Amino acid sequence: MLKGRWIWLFFMVCCCKCIVGQGLDANLLNSINPQNPASRYWQQTSNSVYWAGYTLPAGTLIYGLVSGDQNVKHASYDLLISIGTNVLITDVLKRSFNRTRPMDAHPGMIFSTPSSDMSLPSGHTSLAFATATTLSLQCKKWYVTVPAYAWAGSVAYSRMYLGKHYPSDVVGGALVGIGSGYASHWLNRKLFKRYYRNRMYEQ
Predict the structure, then answer these.
(1) Where in the numbering of this chain does the Phosphatidic acid phosphatase type 2/haloperoxidase domain appear (predicted)?
(2) Can you give the residue ranges of every domain in the chain?
């Protein structure tokens, strides 16, 4: 049910984009993207999704295996399933929509470095929100949730500042990431329901 809702929301966004055309999207992006998007802060923020999105679950898994901590190990499974699901869905959608990058569609208006893949949805944004959502579902503490989503939102903004994605690409990426996080959280508990049932009884 929940999975169907986020997919429906994503396609509603895409439909709205098609209705208004790329003009509004491009104008919004133009107001964010400078002629020389050279800020190292936003470049590093954009790149942070790689070490946070990939090293966090790998490091968590290694620690869980070495220490024998079952809670940490299952937390890493949650992250790995979330990221794997997110990468697969994002890739399928990029190929399906086949949307041209904004700097290629609007030369002289949007400024960025060349990119080899398609624009919709934003992969950086979807990975950031998948990671943030999974961490938030695992910890359920405001001091984890707020920084996690603040970081994911910063990654999303950085993709527009750098001219890599339209605002609708970023919104679509955020919805895919959040949906992947919830779907993986549900799947992880189905796959390891005996572990989570025993853990509930122990508490």
Answers:
(1) 76-185
(2) 37-201
User: Rounded distance, CA 87 to CA 80, Å?
Assistant: 11
Nearest CA among 146, 149, 86 for reference residue 121 = 86
Whether the CB-CB separation of 86 and 127 falls below 8 Å is answered with yes
Biggest CA pair distance of the chain: 62
What is the reported pLDDT for 196? 58
Peptide bond into 167 cis (omega under 30): no
Strand ranges, E, within the chain: none
Could you tell me which of 73, 90, 93, 190 has the C-alpha nearest to residue 130? 90
Per-residue pLDDT, averaged over 73-88, amounts to 87
Chosen CATH of 37-201 out of 3.20.20.80, 3.30.70.870, 3.40.630.30, 1.10.606.20: 1.10.606.20
Distances (CA, A) of 154 to 14, 16, 174: 22, 24, 12
**Which is nearest to 148 in space by CA: 158, 161, 134?**
134
Asked if 178 contacts 134 with a C-beta cutoff of 8 angstroms, the reply is: no
pLDDT at residue 50, as a whole number: 87
What CA–CA distance (Å, rounded) separates 106 from 20? Answer: 17
